[in-house]
Design goal:
2 domains, DNA-binding transcription factor activity, about 200 residues, six-stranded antiparallel sheet, four-stranded antiparallel sheet, Jelly Rolls, DNA binding, about 25% helix
Length: about 200
């Protein structure tokens, strides 16, 4: 169950960083109460909350949604799964985060009429969008750009961006997220005891 994986992974990430709930709340912008509820399995986070956690802890998104095996200071997922948050965009991990390439790839699903807008990611994060079914629009630098089957965009994701499907048909697209080296959780003690990263 996705919520259980998030609960386990969040607790492990926070413990590894040596942070209290209050410190983690300050780091991520997610309230102490919400963090506690997620870790106790009392609340299911939204995709926006997951991105806050990923940005605050400077981890890839898959660090919170996959079965993770800790290896040499990085996180390696044991398997991938489809994830769907109520009222939000659906996605399936195609390639989980790979510290060698600094990227992760998802197959995203937009329902007819669905709009998904995302807050800026960490400085230097870049996204690739490649449409594999249907048609959609991508919000880049404040402008909605049409993107049909076979079309692709690469854009800076450290600014507001989004995706929408104004058609009557479902749309699928590959979304690859490229993280700069400075945003990777590469060592076992990088975040230990620190609450200064945002």
């Amino acid at each position: 169950m996705t919520e259980e994986k998030i609960r386990i992974n969040l607790k492990a990430v926070r413990a590894r960083a040596g942070l209290s709930l209050a410190q983690a709340a300050e780091l991520t912008g997610v309230s102490k109460a919400m963090l506690g509820q997620i870790e106790r399995g009392e609340s299911s986070p939204t995709i926006a909350t997951l991105w806050k956690l990923a940005k605050g802890f400077q981890l890839p998104l898959t660090a919170f949604i996959e079965d993770l095996i800790e290896t040499t200071g990085t996180f390696a997922p044991a398997q991938t799964r489809s994830v769907r948050f109520q009222g939000s965009i659906g996605f399936h991990t195609v390639f989980p985060f790979d510290p060698v390439f600094g990227s992760e790839t998802f197959l995203m699903t937009l329902q007819p009429g669905q709009v998904h807008q995302s807050n800026p990611h960490d400085t230097g994060v870049v996204e690739d969008v490649f449409v594999t079914r249907g048609a959609m629009e991508v919000l880049i630098a404040g402008e909605w750009k049409s993107c049909r089957y076979g079309d692709a965009f690469r854009f800076p994701a450290d600014q507001p961006h989004g995706y929408r499907n104004l058609s009557a048909e479902i749309a699928h697209f590959h979304n690859t997220i490229h993280y700069p080296k400075t945003a990777l959780f590469e060592t076992t003690d990088q975040n230990d005891g620190s609450d200064e990263e945002a």
